[in-house]
Design goal:
- Helix 3 packs across helix 5.
- The relative contact order is 0.16.
- Helices cover about 60% and strands about 0% of the residues.
- With about 120 residues, the protein is an all-alpha fold.
- It is globular.
């Protein structure tokens, strides 16, 4: 049997590692995890690799929480291209109202207007 972690490793598992490597505040990871789970329920970014999803979700969450990391920083930790991260980010951005919990906005943690608009170029 093969030792590849990919079968067992979901985006949430990768998240922990990436957030540590990126030195993110502790509140980023649980919110990012919630967003990934919600996106999965809604079928957003279906068929993308866990690595891409984790990277894109971190990019989304960091901006959302006003702790932006560049796609380049995330891409070097996740090992996927900046383009891939932005692609997943755009899928999430398109559904941002469904992914971002009302209470995050109410308690001032999250701000939708902090999300950058990434053009598809």
């Amino acid at each position: 049997h093969s030792n590849t972690p990919s079968a067992l490793t979901g985006p949430e598992d990768l998240l922990v590692r990436y957030c540590n490597h990126l030195d993110l505040p502790p509140n980023v990871q649980p919110i990012c995890s919630d967003i990934i789970v919600k996106a999965r329920d809604l079928g957003i970014a279906d068929g993308r690799s866990p690595v891409s999803i984790a990277g894109g979700a971190i990019y989304f969450t960091c901006h959302l929480l006003g702790k932006p990391k560049s796609a380049r920083e995330i891409s070097s930790v996740a090992g996927v291209s900046e383009g891939t991260i932005k692609l997943v980010y755009r899928l999430y951005y398109a559904e941002k109202e469904k992914l971002v919990k009302e209470e995050w906005i109410k308690d001032g943690k999250a701000k939708l207007d902090k999300l950058p608009v990434e053009s598809s170029k």
